[in-house]
Design a protein that fits this description.
heterodimer, A: 253 residues, alpha/beta, three-stranded antiparallel beta sheet, B: 308 residues, 15 helices
């Protein structure tokens, strides 16, 4: 899709003057952003700045203190796939990879009690897409961190190919597994899935995303190019330079 | 072997076997969910509430009888007509008409408190369950007309041998409740799995997680009331949790854990009831001990599987 065509479509998601917080205490105010089809938005900001709260609000799990989140362009909440922040709640859970990925289709069950043949077929495809077909009958609890996150991504994709909300999908993974997750997410985005991702890793966010939403004391929303030009973009840019020089130092020519 | 067949010619032995297996099968269905959603404490709390409810119901029954006798029979219609209808209903259903709704209500309330704050919920459940236990015992000792109070309490707590005095109506009641529980479980299997595994994802993609949680709580209450007659209120949780824990030693998927725990529960009940008839031991306790041995066997099997 060309940039021109993208601009003509109405946004899939937009927030107007959003205020978020807990128990009457506001974390963020005056939050405005738009997400169009095919965008790759990274939400960055300090810990406790309200990134996860924002994601829960977008999903409708939590009510905003003020303002609104609107869906547009034919999007509805059932068309959003979600990858929650990792928790160790499911540590000993006896579930096979196949069962978990299939459960991604629960939102499409409607009034049905059981999953359809097509859904079971689609599980196979989604597993193949994430390169984990061979793990289908493995126990989830026995997998490595990187494999688990790929299963979670496959489940999110089962829920929707339209838009994915990813809450720190690479946290705690080793560099190789992180790289692999970023690659899979980028490929999904190239194939037309809108990505909204919370990330701590600003260097990678700037590398892969099209748009940045910075949540915190200072707010920013815009394209990655614009972000580089702003003041809040600068420290991170500096950080990037530092990292690069650090790499250079550790590999003396 | 011959002795067993001789016994099985008597209806009470056949009834005990049927009821025992049905109850064990149903109880094992929700085991995994209970263990993994940290709901085990709700199961325990509910069984104590059910004990209290039984005490309340039996006192109510005594009180109603006395009230109706003093009022005489001159006006069978109206309020006293309703009371005598209630009394006969209670007698016919073995007080289930009181115990079942009270336990379901308690299940819903406990789930509410448990969801809000973890630790507070735990404390609330401990408080409710011990209060129900103490209150129930107090009521029974204050108002009971039975000469053998200790025996009554003991049989409510441990099930004793009451399973061998089951009538045909008990078997039918048990059959109906088991069919309802099993049907609900099969129909909502996928949603129960989804909510047990990851509640926040389930909510995010539009599954009504609180409705599923409510269903789980109501089913637990049904199962507990059903299983009380078999193993008594203290051993009910064993019947729910043991088969799932055993199956989790050897199986990897939710479906295989569920199937294996149902099979284990059925076998344990079969052997437990037969053994208790042969050795004239208390039925509930025997079944639980058989399940304990089953758990040991599955642990060994799981270890052997990992080594190979």
């Amino acid at each position: 899709m060309s940039e021109q065509q993208k601009k003509q479509r109405e946004p899939e998601l937009y927030a107007s003057d959003l205020q978020l917080g807990y128990e009457g205490r506001a974390l963020v105010s005056h939050l405005n952003f738009t997400v169009r089809h095919g965008d790759y938005l990274c939400i960055v900001g300090e810990n406790g700045a309200g990134k996860s709260t924002l994601m829960r609000t977008i999903l409708g799990l939590q009510k905003p203190m003020g303002g609104e989140v609107h869906y547009g362009d034919g999007l509805s909440s059932e068309m959003i796939g979600y990858l929650p922040q990792q928790s160790d709640l499911q540590r000993d859970f006896p579930a096979s990879v196949r069962e978990i990925v299939l459960s991604g289709f629960q939102g499409q069950l409607g009034k049905r009690f059981f999953y359809t043949r097509e859904m079971k077929q689609a599980v196979q495809e989604n597993l193949a897409r994430m390169g984990i077909s061979d793990l289908a009958d493995q126990s989830f609890s026995a997998l490595s961190g990187g494999q688990k996150q790929r299963v979670m991504l496959a489940r999110a994709v089962s829920a929707s190919r339209r838009m994915l909300l990813l809450d720190e999908p690479v946290a705690g993974l080793d560099p190789l597994a992180q790289e692999e997750m970023y690659r899979l997410i980028r490929e999904l985005n190239k194939d037309g899935t809108t990505i909204v991702m919370i990330s701590h890793d600003i260097v990678s966010a700037l590398q892969y995303a099209t748009h940045i939403l910075h949540v915190g004391k200072e707010l920013f929303f815009g394209t990655v190019q614009d972000y580089h030009r702003t003041r809040i973009g600068k420290p991170h840019l500096l950080g990037e330079e530092k990292t690069k020089s650090a790499i250079r130092l550790s590999h003396p020519m | 072997m011959g002795t067993i067949f001789t016994y099985l010619q008597y209806p009470f032995a056949r009834y005990a076997l049927i009821v025992g297996i049905l109850v064990a099968l149903c109880a094992s269905l929700l085991g995994v969910t209970l263990v993994l959603k940290r709901f085990s404490f709700i199961g325990d709390g509910l069984s104590h509430v059910a004990f209290g409810a039984i005490a309340v119901a039996s006192v109510l029954q005594l009180w109603l009888t006395a009230l109706l006798r003093s009022a005489g029979v001159q006006n069978a219609a109206g309020f006293s007509g309703f009371l005598s209808w209630l009394l006969s209903l209670m007698k016919n259903t073995n007080n289930m008409v009181i115990v079942l709704p009270l336990t379901v209500l308690a299940a819903v309330l406990l789930l509410r408190t448990g969801q809000n704050t973890k630790i507070k919920g735990d404390a609330a459940i401990a408080m409710i369950s011990v209060s129900a236990l103490a209150g129930g015992y107090l009521l029974m000792s204050l108002f009971s007309t039975s000469a053998n109070l200790a025996g009554d309490v003991c049989s409510t707590l441990f099930g004793s041998t009451s399973i061998l005095t089951l009538g045909l109506s008990d078997v039918i009641f048990c059959l109906i409740l088991s069919v309802i529980t099993a049907a609900l479980f099969i129909l909502f299997y996928n949603r129960i799995f989804a909510v047990t595994f990851d509640e926040s994802f389930a909510k995010a993609v539009g599954t009504k997680a609180s409705a599923v949680n409510l269903l789980i709580a109501v089913m637990i209450a049904l199962i507990i009331v059903l299983a009380m007659s078999l193993v008594g209120s203290l051993l009910v949780s064993a019947l729910i949790i043991f088969p799932a824990l055993s199956a989790m030693r050897v199986a990897k998927s939710f479906r295989s854990v569920t199937i294996i725990s149902v099979i284990l529960a059925g076998l344990s009940a079969l052997f437990g009831v037969l053994l208790s008839i042969l050795l004239s031991t208390p039925v509930g306790a025997t079944i639980v001990i058989v399940e304990l041995f089953g758990f040991g066997a599955m642990c060994l099997l799981g270890k052997a599987g990992k080594l190979s």
